Amino acid sequence: MNTVPVWSVDARTGLRSAQVTVEAGVDDVDRAVRAARAALPALADRTARAALLRAAADRLEAHGAELIAAADRETGLGPVRLTGELARTKYQLRAFAEVVDEGAFLDVVVDHADPQAQPAPRPDLRRWKTPLGVVAVFAASNFPFAFSVPGGDTASALAAGCPVVAKAHPDHPQTSELAAAALREAARSVGLPADVLVLLHGRQAGADLVRHPLVSAAGFTGSIAGGRALYDLAATRPVPIPFHGELGSLNPVLVTERAAAARAEEIGTGLGGSFTLGMGQFCTKPGLVLVPDDESGDRLEKALVAAASGAAAGALLDGRMREAFLAGFAERAALPGVSVPVPAGEQPAPGQEQAVRPGFLSVPAGLLADEEHRPLLEECFGPVTVLARYRDQAQAEAVLAGLGGNLTATLHAEPGEPAAAGLLELLTGLAGRVLFGGWPTGVAVAPSMHHGGPYPATTSTGTSVGGTAIERWLRPVAYQGVPQQLLPPELRDGDTAGVPRRVDGVLRLP
């Protein structure tokens, strides 16, 4: 029996507040997965799934005050930010209920038998998408609701008909327990087994979960090192499984000479607000910003100095991240040619013993081609960004060409600027979401949103935000020559299930 304690820790003081539970051992993982697998048949009813998702949102709303208080203590993100995040999480659950009701995600295609078809007779074929099975969901540190136990991975998996075994993040175990209890309560309220969602704690439990033969897919939001280790486990199982991991992103920004000349102060101030938002702990934080090395770039940097100097100090999510941030900033600041217009560092205060202050670095863009300066092109989690001053567009493009994949890439250019189309094309090759103007530290929950990108931003081409996130937990199945009475209602002739279908090449709406 595993007896390693799991503690709830106050993010602002670094002090333990309570023991929440103990880490799961291999037998605990096995029981959890088997319990979730037993709940799979109950999720086959789309009506019940939609009711579950709505009930889950209602239960989170009912327990909102308790959830926000726990999350604030464990993450230090503040009640205002967490209230908004909880609202987003409830919206995601309700939005996926609508996706389930509509049924378009099933991608139903019916081709009736045609003996005269060319080049060969065609049998009766009917295709739809079916749930993969038990999904392992790894909670994120920086979003205790929206990307954790009740978040988008869980909501989309349940919407697909997949039960979930969630692995809590060690930064917010009490919040995770409360959220899981709310979702299990929601399941019981609509007549579904509570084990449509099961919660586990412990680092080793995560590895054991990915290895379990009854786990059919996994969703992860976290570090490159942790995500890659789990991805490799998923790929080297006797039966490999899909691993949808969001790992890390630099989120480059390119400011053209014309944009800087026209809006230097506005862009500098906006950048300051973006990279310090949530103490720089957004996965979409702009970590590298290319600006011209001229007078307009000087104005932009001056505005950024004012914005960054005025940004509030605050705690990071845990002591480990705090130390990594401080060490990462110091390592980068010590590189040859790097200047430190605003230094980051410790700034403790009573009740805020773990607080740090934001800062940023500036470097000539030409130095980024050197291996020695490679750390400047790697994500540093926390309130820091790198201003890279380029001498001409060719130099800026060379820096971008050397980057890996990203969640976002942003272009600040003037309307009608001749180079804009080519620059957008360049940025499209780097990221899953490309912005023209604005800042990337906000991910709208909308059907058209794509939150993903080339490796190492993610390990797949799927999105973790928006209605199409459901596609990650489904696989297509075609039935050939099956009698009507044996087919699922969605595949039978006639509008028996009220879902969109493509029949003999013609799209038919219910």
The stretches of 5 or more residues where confidence is low (pLDDT under 50) are none
Strand line-up across the major sheet: 13-16-17-11-10-18-19
By CATH reckoning, the class of the largest domain would read Alpha Beta
CATH architecture of the largest domain: 3-Layer(aba) Sandwich
**Structural class assignment:** alpha/beta
Number of domains: 2
Radius of gyration: 25 Å
Number of helices: 13
The rough form would be described as: globular
Query: What profile does the largest beta sheet have?
Result: 7 strands, mixed
Strand fraction = 15-25%
The CATH topology of the largest domain is given as Aldehyde Dehydrogenase, Chain A, domain 1
Task: Determine the N-to-C terminus distance.
Answer: 54 Å
Mean pLDDT: 96
Question: How would you sum up this structure, described in words?
Answer:
With 510 residues, the chain is α/β, with parallel strands linked by helices. The protein folds into two domains: 21-99 and 129-247 and 461-473, Aldehyde Dehydrogenase, Chain A, domain 1 (3-Layer(aba) Sandwich); 252-436, Aldehyde Dehydrogenase, Chain A, domain 2 (3-Layer(aba) Sandwich), CATH 3.40.309. It has 13 helices and 22 strands. It has helices at 26-38, 46-62, 64-75, 79-102, 152-160, 173-189, 203-211, 224-236, 257-276, 295-309, 319-333, 393-401, 420-428; strands spanning 5-9, 16-22, 108-111, 125-131, 134-138, 164-167, 197-200, 215-221, 243-246, 252-255, 288-292, 314-315, 339-342, 345-346, 355-357, 359-364, 384-390, 406-412, 431-436, 474-480, 501-503, 506-508. A seven-stranded mixed beta sheet has the order 13-16-17-11-10-18-19, with helices on both faces. Strands 20-4-3-21-22 form a five-stranded mixed beta sheet, with no helix packed on it. The chain has a five-stranded parallel beta sheet with strand order 7-6-5-8-9, with helices on both faces. Helix 5 (152-160) links the parallel strand 5 and strand 6 (164-167). It is globular and about 75 Å long.
